[in-house]
Every structure is written in structure tokens, then in C-alpha cells.
Amino acid sequence: MTDITHNLIKLPPTAVAVGFFDGLHLGHMEVIKEALRHEYASAMFTFHSDTALPKREKIENLLSNEMKLENLAKTGLDYVYSPDFDTVRDYTAEDFIVRVLAKIMNAKTVICGFDFRLGAGGGCDAEQFKLLCGKHGIDTVIIPPFSLDGQIVHSTAIKNLIKSGEVEKANRLLGYEFCYEGEVIYGNKLGRKIGFPTINQLFPENIVMPRFGVYKSTVEIDGRLFPSVTNIGVKPTVAYKDKPLSETHINDFDGDLYGRTLRIRLIRFIRPERKFDDLDGLKEQLSKDKSEAILS
User: Fold this and answer.
1) What is the pTM of this model?
2) For the chain, what is the domain count?
3) Which residues are CB-contacts of 179 (< 8 A; sequence separation ≥ 6)?
4) DSSP code string of 210-275
5) Which of 117, 123, 151, 286 lies deepest, with the highest CB count within 10 Å?
6) Is residue 276 part of a domain?
7) Which domain holds residue 218?
8) Each residue of 126-177: pLDDT tens digit?
9) CATH number of residue 265's parent domain
């Protein structure tokens, strides 16, 4: 896969998947599969995931931009163009078709989802987009809703599941385990003192915030997945007042991870975050959490 964002090159005729694709969930994959099916080189136009789109009050992505590109590289797409939203902010829908899809992407066919919108204020829907593309000799394929377990798969539904702690359901709709990355920072080392050493990571600001609480998880270290238990929240027992923290106890691992960027995958919600009367109560609960997360 070639990312043409910083080095615009002359592309061969392409079939272009178009959209924000903030999660690359199962619905998004249907759009990508259609781009791969065509006779032309397969391509995608998407925005850099850290771009603040006007319809959103704040950025709540399902994937970081780095992980998004990493996942796209596994799809078999030939080309990806992912500029910042500001580069096309003032484009009309027709501007975008002419100046981006035709001129830069050399698109002969474009593929979008049923709920695709384009232009100032999202005023151009998928059917209007199809008509405009036709004016410029570009075919358009609109992918219908994709459903799983009786539910249409879309980003808002997945984010709401994550916010409510229903990560198992969210993972089914994503097609992979919800994950995030962060640098391991120094904490107060309380976990080590009570027999449960942990790694501490500030929760990424641009990733959708899961329900505060304890999760069965895995940690990826040097290509290996370690079973773990993760608490996301503000550590009320020890009066942590900073930004939300991801605190993870890794099973059967002993090593210095400070300063490293590690990926956490959330598998199942165990319990809400709670405040304990004393450290003995916390230690007892952590033992139960470990048993449920790692041994079940």
C-alpha cells in the first residue's frame, strides 16, 4: 500500500473507496472489498483521523491514525490518500470530485457507504454524489447497510457500546478487539507495593473513552500478547486527579517498560471503577479481578 498524502504521484486508473473510515469496522470493510473487486487499481480517500471534522464537538476515534493506516495496509489496497480535513474544508461536492477524485486519484469508479455525505455541512448525500460523479464520467457504487446480529454496523453504535462498557458487542461489530496505545509513564508504584505491579498510560485524548472500570485485556509486547487486567478511570481509592488513566497488570511478566509505547486490547468489561475504604480492600478486589480476567 502506498500512502500518497505527502508525495502526490500520478496514479493509474483507480476504484476509490471514499469516506472517513474512523474505525475500519465490518461495515467499512464492505466498502473496501468493493474497491478491491474492480479491474482498476484499488485506492482509498480518507481523512487523517486526528482531523477535527466540523460535525463533531470533539474527536472520538475508534482507531488512532497510525493504527488505521496499519490496518489498511493489511487489506490489499494499492493506494491511500489521507490528508487533513483543512485541505478540502471549503470544497463543494463538485470541487472535491473534480480536484481530488478526478485529478489526484484518477478515479474511474468510486465506492461509498449508504450514509456517505460530502460538502459544506454534509449537504451532498450518497445519491447526489452519484449523480455529480456521473457528470464527470465516474461510476459510483453505493454500499447498502451491513447488519450483524440484527444491528446495522456503524461507528456511532460502536462508540456508544464502548462508552457503556459493552466492549464484547463492540468488538463483534468492529471485527477486531478495540485497542489503544500509550507511553508507559511513572506512577506512584502502589500496585507493586501491594503485589499487583502495573503499567500506567494516559488514555489517548483522541480515542473514544470507554466506561470507567476494570476490563479483561491483553498487552502486546515485542509481538507477543500477554493476558492482563486493565483499569480505566481516575483511581478514586488513591485520589488520582489527573487525566483518565489506563492502569494494567500484566500476567507473568517482569521487566522495565517505562517509556515504551504499548498497545492494550480490551476484551470484556468486569466491573465499574469503585472506591475502597482501605488498601486491603483494594488488594482483595484486585485478586478477584485478576482471577476473572486472566483465569476465565
Assistant:
1) 0.90
2) 2
3) 67, 263, 264, 265, 266
4) PPSEEEEEEEEETTEEEEEEEEEE--GGGT--SS-EEEEEETT--S--TT-EEEEEEEEEEEE---
5) 286
6) yes
7) 177-294
8) 999 999 999 999 999 999 999 998 889 999 999 999 999 999 999 999 999 9
9) 2.40.30.30
